[in-house]
Amino acid sequence: MESSFPKYSCLDFVFTVIGVCTFLFDVGSDLWVAKEFYTHGDFMWFGVLVGFMLMSSVVIQLFSWFWLQYDRPLEEFESQASSGNTVLFSEAKRVKLLLLLHVCQLGFFIRHVSAICQGFRVWWQGGRGSEYAVYLTHDLSMLRLIETFCESAPQLTLMMYIILRNNHARMVQCVSVVASTTSIAWMVVDYHRSLRSFLPDKDKQGWLSSVVYFFWNLFLICPRVAAVALFASVLPSYIAAHFLFLWPFFVIWAWKQGTDFMDSKEGEWLYRATIGLIWYFSWFNVAEGHTRGRSLIYHTFMITDTGILLATWWFYRDAETTQPYAISLIISIPLGYVLGLVIKVFYYCCFHPKLWRPVDFGKPADGREPHIFIQADGASDGGERHSVIQADGSSDGGEPHSVVQAIGGASQRFNKRMNQHAANFYKTNTSSAIKTNEC
After folding, report:
1. Rounded to whole angstroms, how far apart are CA atoms 64 and 144?
2. Do 279 and 298 touch, CB atoms closer than 8 A?
3. How far is CA 192 from CA 13, 70, 222, 339, 345, in A?
4. Which of 29, 176, 269, 437 is the most exposed place for a label (fewest CB within 10 A)?
């Protein structure tokens, strides 16, 4: 039986190339908007925009650098995957160069280039090195998610605020809105594809599930961004206070859920801080168990908070200038959020797998049947994460990279970080272990 590890396909390569183009378009539009603000004398908005860009870039470089340090043991795996060819992230002697690139805010871009090179090499060598190419694309998917909520969502809010404040839109502002919306939309589809790649029956999860997933997130994120922008248009000095008031509570809630995504204490707190920022705009599941209850609490709070923001805008707005669209906004924004919740329920009822399962294995060389266990968070082993899956049922409880090894066979690696998110997203029961017995 052929291993069902995620394989690198031509479509994956196309998605990687499109991701690079989207990234360059986003950066180019940001620089254009910043230049327009500066030349028109809008120094405050110029500073805010540049601040968003720098904050997002620094956060992404930190995640990328942490992951490079965690993945140093993957050097042998990478060299095997590339069949002796030089890959940018391969040798220890390049650590200083990589550090310099990250300090210069080029680490994310270099990851894109490396993923394209590895994808082309997989195609050229007839599929050899596929696992490492998949590993790189999964990391890129997660970094794009972080970039979206650290830069695109705040930038979209800023552009909408400026348009509402001035009651008209310049071409450059429209381009920025399109670029940010495109970035968010692409992140949603790309991230869902990465999650689906860990399903054993991923081929049966058609494009319709990604479309439904896209619209669910679109109708939940856009009303939230619009409500924040409307609030900022009437009380601009209070929007930062609003965020800084909510963000620590989100970070503490992530900590109380026992997140275990990174492999160092410092990295984990960076992750929790980033989750706090993401939760300001959208729900993102970070831990196993009680998912439905946490989601209900979050959406109840967001509906209440969004309602308060809209009520504040309605009370302080200029009735004369907002008269053409005020009624439409005050009705469509809550309805859009409710529609997003309805689509989310529809997704879970019709498209969400009922049980997340690990990858299947063929019969090992010695003829014995493999028994594969995954120790999940909160399991009977005392809470160790499911980093290593071994055919004899043992677990090391904390290796930094997911290693799957069948008895009598060679080890294969897959991306622990995205695998853990897939487990949180797809696993709907709370059992401590999943056991499969496949031949």
Report:
1. 11
2. yes
3. 16, 24, 18, 20, 16
4. 437
Pick the closest to residue 238 from 167, 308, 303 (CA basis).
308
SS3 83: coil
| Tokens (6 digits) for 283 | 């729900």
Residuewise pLDDT in 10s, the chain (439 residues): 344 445 677 777 887 888 788 888 888 888 888 998 999 888 998 999 999 999 999 999 999 999 988 877 665 555 544 444 444 444 556 778 888 899 999 888 888 888 888 888 887 777 676 777 888 888 888 898 898 899 889 989 998 998 888 888 788 788 888 778 877 877 877 887 777 777 665 555 567 887 888 888 889 999 999 999 999 999 998 999 999 999 999 999 999 998 888 889 999 999 999 999 999 999 988 887 777 889 999 999 999 999 999 999 999 998 888 888 899 999 999 999 999 999 999 988 887 765 444 444 344 444 443 433 333 333 333 333 333 333 333 333 344 444 433 333 344 556 777 777 777 777 644 333 323 333 3
What is Dmax (Cα atoms) for the chain? 80
Extract the tokens encoding 396. 């090391």
Q: Which of 336, 410, 426 is nearest to 374 (CA)?
A: 426
Instruction: State the DSSP code for 358.
Output: P
| Lookup: tokens for 69 | 């340090």
CA–CA distances in Å: residue 38 to residues 33, 35, 54, 172, 407:
9, 5, 16, 13, 63
Distances in whole angstroms, Cα of residue 315 to Cα of each of 180, 226, 308, 330, 413 = 29, 16, 11, 12, 56
Which is nearest to 154 in space by CA: 21, 272, 53?
A: 53
Q: How far apart (Å, rounded) are the C-alpha atoms in residues 137 and 15?
A: 9
